[in-house]
Here is the input.
Amino acid sequence: MWRTLLSDPAFGAAVRFTLQVTVVATVLAAAAGLALAAVL
Here is the structure.
């Protein structure tokens, strides 16, 4: 079951999209933290 799920292009695209969103959210949070630290 996992093999067919992982080979499904839609599933792979969803995984990549989730990873990209996670990375972007992490970068934005880090930038916001740095900006906040600079202001304070």
